[in-house]
Design brief:
alpha+beta, 302 residues, six-stranded mixed beta sheet, Deoxyribonuclease I, Chain A, 16 strands
């Protein structure tokens, strides 16, 4: 199974052209994809509803959108009739298998004097892979403030750790068979969704591997034993695949910022042994970021 993460910068490539078809070609080989900075009627342009366009470009996939920002874009005609319209941007999951359930968790964000700052969310989905379901999380952490990223990182870790204890959006342990398929919820017993333990977390974290935020996710470096990814934490798929933490660029340098590796794919510890390959596509030119890929041997799952 091949997974990918890509901050697509609303499809604006290095050449300044907005081209979602090019974005789709870059990640088309992946089975499950997490995208960041996807817009829905945010600005006037061709294919302004980028979620709809992505669904057209991936007709054999399941496409799910989670807005991290949602503001009013409505208008009124001369008769006072309201044309309801939302301006949104956020996260997208594109999956070869059904997105069984989803939840959107807001992450704490605070104004920063002299800078525009937006909200971050954590998108949780459960993917119904035929070998076994797994949780698939996508996020885009604050780009400005290390302090806010540390706060958001702690929240992400806590949410993911607590999810199996909370269960799926619909739960029913011990419910008698007579209550299924009737009354207000009208769901059959076999339709109750799972909340599995294994999880993949990916996205644009705006953190380098030498940052304190990264330590929160993967455990700090021990001078004797290296990274100590304890239960409840994560392993970096690129590192598991043999890439040094000091190697790789997912955000090339520009006139303001230096080159850095800030886009990551993390896996919970029960999946660490399944990672076979991992790489950064440094030739991709469909965004100001580079996509990251990880291949897991899902036949060994379970």
């Amino acid at each position: 199974m091949l997974v990918a993460t890509y901050n697509i910068q609303w499809g604006k490539g290095r050449d300044g052209l907005v081209d979602l078809d090019r974005v789709a070609r870059v990640v088309a080989q992946a089975d499950v994809i997490g995208l960041q900075e996807v817009e829905r009627n945010w600005r006037k342009m061709d294919h302004a509803d980028q979620v709809q366009r992505l669904a057209e470009l991936f007709p054999d996939r399941y496409v799910f959108f989670a807005p991290s920002l949602d503001v009013d874009g409505s208008s009124c005609d001369a008769n006072g009739r309201v044309m309801n319209h939302r301006r949104q941007y956020g996260l997208v999951v594109i999956s070869r298998w059904p997105v069984l359930t989803s939840r959107i968790f807001p992450l704490s964000s605070y104004p920063v004097h002299g800078h525009l700052n937006d909200r971050s969310v954590l998108l949780e989905t459960v993917i119904g892979h035929p070998v076994g379901p797994f949780r698939f999380y996508v996020t885009h952490l604050n780009y400005l403030s290390e302090r806010q990223r540390l706060l958001q990182s702690r929240q992400v870790i806590e949410i993911i750790a607590d999810a199996p204890l909370q269960g799926a959006p619909i739960t029913g342990p011990g419910v008698p068979a007579s209550e299924y398929g009737a009354d207000w919820i009208a769901i059959e017993k076999e339709e109750v969704p799972p909340m599995p333990s294994p999880a993949i977390l990916l996205g644009d974290f705006n953190m380098r591997p030498d940052s304190p935020e990264y330590d929160l996710f993967t455990g700090p470096i021990s001078p004797d034993y290296g990274r100590l990814a304890e239960q409840g934490l994560f392993a970096d798929a690129l590192t598991l695949a043999g890439m040094s933490e000091q190697a790789g660029i997912t955000y090339p340098a520009n006139v303001v910022e230096q080159a850095k590796r800030i886009d990551h794919i993390f896996v919970t510890l029960e999946l660490a042994g399944l990672v076979r390959h991992g790489w950064i596509d440094e030739a991709a030119d469909a965004s100001d970021h580079q996509p990251v890929f990880a291949e897991l041997d899902w036949t060994a799952f379970g």
